[in-house]
Amino acid sequence: MAGAVGDIVGKATGAIKGAAGKVTGKVRGVAGKAAGKIRGTAGKVTGKVRGVAGKAAGKIRGTAGKVAGKVRGAAGKAAGKIRGAAGAAGRAVGRAARGGRRGAAGGGN
Q1: Cα 100–102–107 angle (5° rounding)?
Q2: Does residue 46 form part of some domain?
Q3: What is the pLDDT of residue 76?
Q4: Contact 31, 39 (CB under 8 A)
Q5: Contact (Cβ atoms closer than 8 angstroms) between residue 98 and residue 107
Q6: Is the pTM of this model over 0.85?
Q7: Residues 90-103: pLDDT tens digits?
């Protein structure tokens, strides 16, 4: 009878081990699948973050370029006004040296 009980216990133990192995395999499979999905999602997020960062950098570069262009334009405009004022002053000095405006009523030479 001891042999019969041993056979029954052995079969039960084998069945339990087999069931446990199946469950373990399924858990490992699900865990691996979940890890793969997490990696994929993380990769997508990383890609999106890089894309947004690149877009922001491009916008910053563009804004900096616009500001630089406006500064250059303002500097050029100021330089032009200074040149114009210098030219007018030079003309006034020349007129004074010649004795006033030519052709003006009551003018000089």
Answers
A1: 60
A2: yes
A3: 92
A4: no
A5: no
A6: no
A7: 888 888 888 766 65
Compute φ and ψ for 36, nearest 5 degrees.
-65, -40
- Tokens 């405009």 belong to residue: 77
Determine the structural domain holding residue 55 and report its residue range. Answer: 7-65
Determine the distance from the C-alpha atom of residue 79 to the mean position of all C-alpha atoms in its chain, rounded to a whole number. Answer: 36
Task: Write down the H helix ranges in 2-108.
Answer: 2-98
- pLDDT tens profile 7-45: 777 778 888 888 888 878 888 888 888 888 888 888 888
Count of the separate structural domains present in the chain: 1
Within a domain: residue 47? yes
| Residue whose pair of structure tokens reads 């858990």 in the numeric block | 27
Q: Is residue 71 part of a domain?
A: no
Please report whether residue 91 resides in a domain. no
Tokens, residue 109? 């030479």
